[in-house]
DNA sequence: TTGTAAATAAGAATGGTTCCTATTTGCGGA
DNA sequence: TCCGCAAATAGGAACCATTCTTATTTACAA
């Protein structure tokens, strides 16, 4: 998902396009990995001094709801990244820089039959560590 | 891991055996699934009125450190359960009652070679949903 | 039995997130 | 182009899980 797709999606669903919303999208497009609300607040502060937490959190949730951002949780903090739509996959997540690498393997196929009587509502498969760049740093 | 193994492990590592510590172990042995600190505090309150948060959190961390409890994070809240030692595996977790079912499949074998240049530090594979009991309830 | 380090109580403090109310702003319709 | 109104935002209080601090109590080794 890129900025223009995201803005179109917002318009389509009847949400207003504001400067702050565009800036948030630009931030995540450039980030290319998971970022915390705090990271975003810090960035937004530099553009709009006095921006309120609420604006940031409200938009993060909105973006997550409409499918612009996907989310995970690390060390008690929610993390957000641009949603890579298209097909189901998982991620390696760098503990240092938050960048991700697609993992095409999904273990759910193998597991389904062992959970026949269970109502599956979701699953999570994530790998944590250091990416090549952060290892050499 | 059962209560006696856990108590032995604590003694072995030089930690004191207190009534509260035994009670916490009894709670998790009976629970047979993930529980939050709040769940435990509520239970402990009924036995020791005025027990402090700190006692509960300190012991949860201690138990996690020495390997008596394992932990995960759901909806911004840490969850704890008795550690099923022995061999590496993952869990289905019931969103309703917190009970777990072992999943013997581990996707890491398949994934290793696609992450050759990455330093893997950990991974998480969990399946969420409703167990048979909670579906019919 | 006693000394001492470990464990605990009580509640303040912290950090992330959500809520509340008044004000401002985007944008469709006149 | 301008206006009205619903949506968005600012500012800060409130909330919740968790951690920290200090004084007191307790387990247990000697």
UniProtKB/TrEMBL annotation, chains A, B:
Keyword Signal in annotation: no
InterPro entries: FUR, Fur_C, WH-like_DNA-bd_sf, WH_DNA-bd_sf
Taxonomic path: Bacteria, Bacillati, Bacillota, Bacilli, Bacillales
Keyword vocabulary terms for this entry: Cytoplasm, DNA-binding, Iron, Metal-binding, Repressor, Transcription, Transcription regulation, Zinc
Residues the record lists as binding Zn(2+): 94, 97, 131, 134
Cofactor(s) required, per the database record: Mn(2+); Fe(2+); Zn(2+)
Cofactor: binding comment: Binds 1 Mn(2+) or Fe(2+) ion per subunit. Binds 1 zinc ion per subunit.
Subcellular location: Cytoplasm
Binding annotation for Fe cation: 88, 123
GO cellular component: cytoplasm
Family named by the database record: Belongs to the Fur family.
Official protein name in the record: Transcriptional repressor
GO term, biological process aspect, one: negative regulation of DNA-templated transcription
MF terms in GO: DNA-binding transcription factor activity; transcription cis-regulatory region binding; zinc ion binding
Record carries keyword Heme: no
């Amino acid at each position: 998902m890129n900025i223009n797709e995201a803005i179109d999606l917002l318009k389509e669903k009847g949400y207003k396009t504001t400067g702050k919303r565009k800036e948030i999208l630009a931030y995540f497009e450039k980030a290319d990995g998971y970022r915390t609300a705090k990271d975003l607040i810090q960035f937004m502060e530099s553009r709009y001094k006095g921006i309120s937490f609420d604006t940031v959190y409200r938009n993060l949730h909105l973006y997550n709801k409409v499918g612009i951002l996907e989310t995970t949780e690390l060390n008690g903090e929610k993390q957000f990244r641009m949603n890579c739509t298209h097909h189901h996959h998982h991620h390696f997540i760098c503990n240092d820089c938050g960048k991700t690498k697609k993992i095409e393997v999904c273990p759910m196929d193998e597991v389904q039959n062992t959970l026949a009587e269970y109502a599956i509502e979701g699953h999570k498969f994530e790998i944590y560590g250091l990416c090549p760049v952060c290892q050499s740093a």
